[in-house]
Amino acid sequence: MAEQGSHTRREFVAASSAVALGLAAVADAQGKRYRTKLHRAMIVGKPDEAALRPLKEAGFDGVEAGIIPEEEARQCRTIAEGMGMKIHSVLAGWDPGTLEKALRAAHGYGAEAVLIVPGAVRGMKMPEPWELDIKFDQRTGYLKQVVSGDNAPYRDYIEAHDRATDQAHQAIKPMIPLAAELKVAIALENVWNNLWMRPDIFKHLVMSFRSPWVKAYFDVGNHVKYLVPPEKWIRTLGRLIAKVHIKDYKLAPDGRSGSFVHPRDGSINWPAVRDALEAVGYNGWLTIEDGGLPLPEFRRRLDEIIAGR
User: Fold this and answer.
1) Does the pLDDT at position 89 exceed 90?
2) Which of 7, 48, 156, 262 has minimal CB crowding within 10 Å?
3) What is the dihedral of CA 297, 278, 93, 196, to 10 degrees?
4) pLDDT, average across residues 115-119
5) By C-alpha distance, which of 88, 87, 85, 90 is closest to 57?
6) How big is the CA angle at 106 (ends 175 and 182), to the nearest 5 degrees?
7) In percent, how much of the chain has pLDDT > 70?
């Protein structure tokens, strides 16, 4: 009897192990299990029924929309909610002068945030991404250096960067009371604007407003050329991230050039990005900023990203 019992236990253990391995294989096939919930979106201009219907049929949960009068935005909200969709954000873009209109449109849409690019510099000598070694004043955000060694060649750039920091505050601070009143976050995005090109200084900029209504809008693809992995940006910005844009960038073999490509066709480590979003507790929207593929294919690729594959 003892031998028979041992044999039975061995069979049970072996069978249990096989079941566990089978379940693990199924879990791997289905993607990792995450606690954070991510929603699928695309960008549209005016989110009327004609714009929303194809996205709904392709399985998207919502959209990011353009600036329209607040009353029209309310009408669009009614249409979207009637279709089981949400207008979650508004694109204000590069012009801070549009910020008030964007905030009011967001309020009409029932959106949670407005994307604004806080500044840009062009037309001067500036360091290449692989040369960057940024150090800055923790109180003011002003640059101390942008490269190791001699920074004299970049003096104009450093001064322009510091002016841009001041100008960002001048443009955005007056809008914070309205953002708080409307309960719409002002989400700052870096878009190849040659400013705040490392995660720590961009985080400092966002935090320098000292307001829960100023957040970061993180674009995964925009930061690849700066040669700091997007997942590090995400872990650095953490809870400051209000929204996430999805696009991809493929680095050339030299690692110093490249081009934008469709999501999952580039150099981004998407499982690492998904794990980083999980690590910082990001529950929110992933909005594809891209075109040129059928909507069902964009949705499929987004599902792969959400699943951690």
Assistant:
1) yes
2) 7
3) -130
4) 96
5) 85
6) 50
7) 90
Sign of the Cα torsion 248, 89, 284, 185 reads: positive
Say which CATH superfamily domain 32-120+172-306 falls into: Divalent-metal-dependent TIM barrel enzymes (3.20.20.150)
Query: How far is it, in rounded angstroms, from Cα 302 to Cα 298?
Result: 6
252, two tokens = 């050339």
Dihedral, CA of residue 9, residue 12, residue 14 and residue 15, to nearest 10: 170
Sign, CA dihedral 199-112-211-98, equals: positive
Say what angle helices 270-279 and 295-306 make with each other, to 10 degrees.
60
Which tens digit of pLDDT belongs to each residue from 156-190? 999 999 999 999 999 999 999 999 999 999 999 98
Residue identified by tokens 């919930």 is: 37
Q: Are 220 and 253 in contact (CB under 8 A)?
A: no
In this structure, the strands spanning 143-147 and 86-93 are unpaired
Query: How many whole angstroms from its chain centre is CA 55?
Result: 20
Question: How far apart are alpha carbons 147 and 82 in whole angstroms?
Answer: 53
| DSSP letter assigned to residue 153 | G
Q: What is the pLDDT of residues 197-222, one digit of tens each?
A: 999 999 999 999 999 999 999 999 99
The predicted pLDDT at position 237 comes to 98
Q: Return mean pLDDT, the chain.
A: 91
Q: Are 212 and 242 in contact (CB under 8 A)?
A: no
Number of residues assigned to the chain: 309
Residue with tokens 């930061």: 223
Strands (E), 17-85: 38-43, 62-65
Single out the residue of 62, 29, 35 nearest to residue 277, CA to CA: 35
pLDDT at 31 (0 to 100): 55
Q: What residue spans define the domains of the chain?
A: 32-120+172-306
